[in-house]
Design a protein that fits this description.
Strand content: under 5%
Shape: globular
Helix content: 55-70%
Order of helices and strands: HHHHH
Largest sheet: none
Oligomer: single chain
Number of strands: 0
Radius of gyration: 14 Å
Length: about 110
């Protein structure tokens, strides 16, 4: 279970990094969105989750600063729900959280 947790953390961090790159004009919105959807389809048997796609598209005009609790960036880096899985042990949770913190610290802004 720890491997899947770490993979999902990596995915969230990659989404956040791609969003920062979009904000820095290093990629278009469509490229950002496409990369996120492709990444997340791996967790859904290769299918795009329409709710997730709609949520991303709905965030396009979210102008809150990245430090705001309601910002799109904050939502992308919020992985608390990953730790709610009952099959994750306390030790896996601890390892996963430390891994998350190290990855989040390395985001290029």
């Amino acid at each position: 279970m720890i491997m899947m947790l770490l993979i999902k953390i990596d995915s969230a961090i990659e989404d956040a990094q791609d969003f920062l790159d979009y904000q820095s004009d290093k990629m278009t919105w469509e490229t950002f969105k496409s990369k996120c959807l492709e990444r997340h389809s791996k967790f859904n048997e290769g299918n795009i989750n329409e709710d997730y796609a709609n949520w991303i598209e709905g965030q396009k005009n979210n102008k809150l600063s990245n430090q705001s609790s309601g910002s799109f960036y904050t939502a992308l880096v919020d992985v608390d729900d990953l730790f709610d899985d009952e099959s994750i042990t306390e030790e896996d949770s601890k390892v996963g959280y430390e891994y998350y913190l190290s990855k989040r610290h390395n985001l290029r802004k």
